[in-house]
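Box 3.1 A note on notation
Throughout this textbook, protein chains are presented in two layers. The first layer is the amino acid sequence; the second is a token string describing backbone geometry. Keep the layers aligned when reading.
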Amino acid sequence: MTFEYLPRGVCSRKMIFDIEDGVVADLKVEGGCNGNLQGISSLVKGLPVDEVISRLSGIRCGSKSTSCPAQIADALRSFKEKNQ
């Protein structure tokens, strides 16, 4: 299932997830730090949604109260709420 999320408070503009049976099959991020986000996308592929949420929640970027990784966790929480 494809799920799109518009992050807040970060440089990235859109996150597009492909989630299959509770596992992140793919993640593409538009905007933000391209190399870092490609790396994060590669690392979360194949992980259960709950594991990604656990690993990425609460990460901050400099003085910001959030980060792209934290927004990925927020996106997956939103996905779970909408698909329970």
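The mean pLDDT is 97. The domain at 2-82 is CATH 3.90.1010 (Sufe protein. Chain: A).
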